[in-house]
């Protein structure tokens, strides 16, 4: 159930529609400070259902919508799509590919889609839940957070084990 | 359930003991239930002793040693319940060259079953990848994806926005 | 007293505005009293806008941008009341090569009045120093000081305990 | 009032008496992960009167006494001496050099000395207080702590300004 593709449009610093194609093996994303690498990670979390703006480094969820630059106006919405390889049928859909889309408008309205079918956020979260590929603590490590397992109190650590159990 | 948690815990523990020794070239590590009678509520304690050193609380470990210990634990959980992908954002920031190499070798052991997306500023980590993606901001404030060749990694200054233009 | 705090605050603010522009090659930054009527109790807000980007909360800044902003503020305070020495432990961990160079150039501006002791894994930072001290553990668990020549910085792997033996 | 010398004996991983001589300008301390570089920074804090074991990465203050290694027994005390250049007479002693010594025995007993004269910890702290060289927040930045000024709440940030005022 690997990631085939990630498309960003209006998500944080990705004002222009940008597509990342991922293969098996190790992909390394590089570039100068502040160019948008961690924003790519934020996009994956967001699509999978992250609801805490703070966890995406913002003050409010609207902070993920491209808010302009020296030469550009702010955009009216943020959109991101994550496409999974589902040949294993690990996701409960009879399709070889599953594309999950999330969109947030400046009005505060949100849209969610699975393979272009409109759905609710909770459908996305529930679909991901048993796959070991959702928003769990051990398949995505944010910048500066690798030592969290060591620092957190014994009870918080336990939560990570329970996700794996 | 108690049985499932115990099974997971035992497996993660076994993985952690092995992966720690692999990452540190020796030494000793363990995870312990603080409250063995109350498995469903008990916190979890981490013990880590790098080779040649006396056991001490993990708080006394160095920055790099903490990262390596956290990576060992993270991958121990990962091995007991593999996620199809693993996204790591600059987890190698505190590592010296030797540990960076051990970290990248460890990732190679998991690549068969899982896809890795790694963000890094380290040339060594970049060289160990299968694919490189560059992100840059030629236009201020707007992220752009560019392709980066492996020959670029050592020839140019990847962190210089002008060089990637 | 209120007068002294206001004087210090004004001076730190002026330094911060200047040092931020120097470290970022432009942009705009400020520090603001949240409660100007209550100077002796008021909290302090930080505003930072890298060049070409729209103003946003500092939480949205990247890892490297946060380090550079923090260094600008730290040195702004330092400049208003210089300490005879300044000890920095791996503050350059999140910086790319270009920012590492700007950071080291900034340190040079303070060297006249203050002594700097910097711990780093970065070859660039090492090359910018006047004196190098090596610390190694040839005997496991026991630290030992060794002298390191500048020619060693690029010839050998400084992070390899065997190389420094 | 720059630092001339730092001597460690039995402090953390420095089982053998080790002396670091510091000059004007920039000194860079280098070496592999876990070899003792940050322990040098801890020693400076400790001599200047740090009383929080947690701030020295320990669980209790006795954690700073060398506790043995593969080939060595634990030591009976930890000792560290920081020697300042006092030609400016910035420190209130009519001596060109001021050496501050702190010692902690396994029994829990402590000794403090200024130029080999026994004194109390509070004498050391008071002597350092007006020099801008004591335990303030802006002349010593621990590993992983550079962004603290940005993260801390507005009231905590204020404390840093007050130290400089
Ligand atoms: N909604 C938004 N609109 C425009 N720009 C944004 C938005 N949200 C964040 N940004 C910008 O994205 C930048 C941060 O990008 P990111 O954290 O991905 O950098 P990075 O490549 O990970 O850098 P580093 O190597 O320093 O970690 C910030 O400069 C911020 O101003
Ligand atoms: N009381 C003690 N006795 C013996 N060893 C100790 C003691 N306290 C700490 N140590 C050891 O010191 C080591 C940490 O040293 P330190 O934090 O200075 O490393 P470092 O050189 O800064 O490494 P890094 O580059 O990873 O930050 C740990 O391995 C720890 O076991
Ligand atoms: Mg980042
Ligand atoms: Mg360290």
Explain this structure.
The complex is a heterotetramer, with 2 copies of chain A (about 160 residues) and 2 copies of chain B (about 160 residues). With about 160 residues, chain A is an alpha+beta fold. Chain A has helices at about 35-45, 120-130, 150, 155-165, and strands at about 5-10, 20, 25-30, 75-85, 95-105, 110-115, 115-120, 140. Chain A has a 6-stranded antiparallel β-sheet. Chain A is globular, with a radius of gyration of 16 Å. Helix content of chain B is about 40%, strand content about 20%. Chain B is an alpha+beta fold. The model of chain B is unreliable at about 160-165 (pLDDT under 50). At the C-D interface, helix 1, strand 2, helix 2, strand 3 and strand 4 of C face strand 2, strand 3, helix 1, strand 8 and helix 3 of D. Strand 3 (about 25-30) of chain A pairs parallel with strand 4 of chain B, so a sheet runs across the interface. The complex binds adenosine-5'-triphosphate (2 copies) and magnesium ion (2 copies).
What proportion of the residues of chain B is helical, as a percent range? 40-55%
Pattern of helices and strands of chain B:
HEEHEHEHEEH
Spatial extent as radius of gyration of chain A: 16 Å
Strand order of the largest sheet of chain A: 2-1-4-5-6-7
Count all strands of chain A and give the number. 8
Count of distinct strands of chain B: 6
Flag low-confidence runs of chain B: 161-165
Strand content of chain A: 25-35%
Largest interface: A-B, 66 and 71 residues
Q: What is the helix content of chain A? A: 10-25%
Order of helices and strands of chain A: EEEHEEEEHEHH
Mean pLDDT of chain B: 91
Bound molecules: adenosine-5'-triphosphate, magnesium ion
| Head-to-tail CA distance between termini of chain A | 19 Å
What share of the residues of chain B does DSSP label as strand, in percent?
A: 15-25%
Describe the main β-sheet of chain B briefly.
Answer: 2 strands, antiparallel
Number of helices of chain A: 4
Q: Order of strands across the biggest sheet of chain B? A: 1-2
Overall geometric form of chain A: globular
| Secondary structure category of chain B | alpha+beta
> Spans of chain A with pLDDT under 50 lasting ≥5 residues?
none
């Amino acid at each position: 159930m690997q990631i085939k593709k990630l498309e960003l449009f209006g998500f944080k610093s990705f004002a222009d529609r940008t597509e990342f194609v991922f293969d098996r093996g190790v992909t390394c994303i590089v570039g100068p400070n502040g160019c948008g690498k961690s924003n790519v990670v934020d996009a994956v979390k967001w699509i999978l259902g992250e609801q805490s703006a703070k966890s995406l480094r913002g003050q409010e969820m609207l902070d993920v919508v491209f808010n302009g630059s020296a030469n550009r106006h702010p955009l009216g919405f943020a959109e991101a799509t994550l496409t999974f390889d589902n040949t294993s049928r690990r996701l409960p859909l009879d399709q070889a590919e599953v594309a999950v889309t999330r969109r947030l408008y400046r009005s505060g309205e949100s849209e969610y889609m699975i393979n272009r079918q409109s759905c609710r956020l909770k459908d996305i979260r529930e679909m991901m839940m048993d796959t070991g590929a959702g928003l769990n603590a051990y398949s995505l490590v944010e910048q500066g957070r690798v030592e969290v397992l060591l620092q957190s109190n014994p009870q918080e650590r336990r939560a990570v084990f329970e996700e794996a159990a | 359930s108690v049985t499932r948690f115990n099974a997971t815990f035992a497996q993660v523990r076994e993985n952690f003991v092995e992966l720690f020794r692999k990452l540190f070239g020796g030494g000793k590590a363990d995870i312990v239930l603080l409250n063995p009678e109350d498995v469903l509520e008990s916190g979890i304690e981490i013990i880590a002793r790098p080779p040649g050193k006396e056991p001490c609380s993990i708080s006394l470990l160095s920055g790099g040693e903490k990262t390596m210990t956290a990576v060992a634990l993270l991958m121990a959980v990962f091995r007991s319940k593999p996620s199809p992908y693993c996204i790591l954002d600059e987890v190698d920031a505190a590592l010296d060259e030797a540990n960076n190499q051990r970290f990248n070798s460890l990732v190679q052991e998991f690549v068969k079953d899982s896809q890795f997306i790694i963000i890094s500023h380290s040339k060594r980590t970049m060289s160990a990848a299968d694919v490189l993606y560059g992100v840059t901001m030629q236009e201020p404030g707007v992220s752009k994806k560019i392709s980066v060749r492996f020959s670029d990694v050592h020839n140019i200054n990847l962190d210089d926005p002008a060089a990637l233009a």
